[in-house]
Write a structure and sequence with these properties.
Blueprint: E1 5-8, H1 12-23, E2 32-35, H2 39-49, E3 52-54, H3 57-63, E4 66-69, H4 76-83, E5 92-95, H5 102-109, E6 114-118, E7 128-134, H6 140-150, E8 154-158, H7 164-172, H8 174-191, H9 196-217, H10 221-227, H11 234-244, H12 247-267
Parallel strand pairs: 1-2, 1-4, 2-3, 4-5, 5-6, 7-8
Antiparallel strand pairs: 6-7
Bound molecules: NADP nicotinamide-adenine-dinucleotide phosphate.
């Protein structure tokens, strides 16, 4: 990557990005700057990654081409007030801040290209699902830049911003649904007399294998499920119970509720 990049607010997400970009060769330490609120956290980042890190977000913004906003929503206004005087239309702003529309950032920073990202926690293992949406002033080249950066830590899809609440509900919160499922299935193993360790290993590997089949074969989930559902067998006995318990409807209702909540949060 030729651009210089500032991660403004380097917590869990920011650190996962720094780690992913450096490991994959997507950025060199001298083209990457990080800012935090606490000096001790900045020192930790410099020691761990060899990047320049300090509490001077305005300085980092002035010196960098790409500004990654990675603070919590409640800290965004302070950050934007600090960097505002250093941000011009020649910069690209990439915002990871949940529930904050690009319009709010444009209002506070002026006519600058903003790309909003909804990613998810597997960013920590380079398997993020990131969706990017352009603000009013973002052009093709800004989206391409965001794709290049995020492509280093997972997959990237472009969508109009109006879909981001749905994305938040589906892939943003998605890891939590899978973790809950894993938890429930591990408990089931324990109920059937297996040790927690064994049940955990069985379920994790089954999840990873199933996810890889879905992704790598490109076959429809129904087709893959039918392949393990033999007539009169064990799987169909379990599926009957899942259907009786309305698990499918529960997922539809749950994800719709998450979308409603995302819209409420984005609205104020
Ligand atoms: N975690 C994820 O995988 C993930 C995934 C998708 C989206 N997101 C979004 O990414 C954002 C960050 O989430 P997170 O989990 O990384 O939060 P986090 O761990 O709390 O990190 C936030 C960081 O922002 C810093 N900060 C706060 N105010 C600042 C300011 N005014 N100037 C400079 N730095 C400031 C904090 O510094 P100190 O540590 O020094 O206080 C902290 O390092 C959120 O909006 C979240 O919704 C996170």
């Amino acid at each position: 990557m030729e651009e210089t990049l500032a991660i403004l607010g380097t917590g869990r997400l920011g650190e996962a990005l720094v780690d992913g970009l450096l490991r994959s060769g997507g950025a060199l330490p001298d083209r990457l700057r990080c800012s935090t609120r606490r000096p001790a956290r900045a020192r930790e980042l410099t020691e761990r990654f060899g990047v320049k890190a300090d509490t001077d977000s305005a300085g980092a913004a002035a010196e960098s081409d790409v500004l990654v906003l990675a603070v919590k929503p409640q800290n965004l206004r302070d950050l934007l007030a600090e960097i505002g005087p250093k941000v011009s239309a020649s910069k690209t702003v990439i915002s990871f801040v949940a529930a904050v529309p690009t319009g709010v950032i444009e209002e506070l920073l002026g006519e600058v290209p903003v790309v909003r990202v909804m990613s998810n926690t597997p960013v920590q293992v380079d398997e993020a699902m990131s969706v990017i949406a352009p603000g009013r002033f973002a052009e093709e080249r800004h989206l391409e830049m965001a794709e290049r950066i995020l492509g280093r830590v997972g997959r990237v899809v472009r969508l109009p911003e109006e879909h981001l609440d749905a994305v938040t509900a589906l892939s943003g919160s998605g890891p939590a649904y899978f973790f809950l499922l894993a938890e429930a299935m591990i408990d089931a193993g324990i109920l059937l007399g297996l040790s927690r360790d064994v049940a955990t290993e069985l379920i994790i590997q089954t999840m990873v294998g199933s996810a890889k089949m879905l992704r790598d074969t490109g076959r429809h989930p129904v087709e893959l499920r039918e392949a393990v559902t033999s007539p009169g067998g064990t799987t169909i006995a379990a599926i009957r119970v899942l259907e009786e318990e309305r698990v499918r409807a529960a997922f539809l209702n749950a994800i719709e509720a998450a979308q409603r909540r995302a819209a409420e949060l984005a609205g104020g």
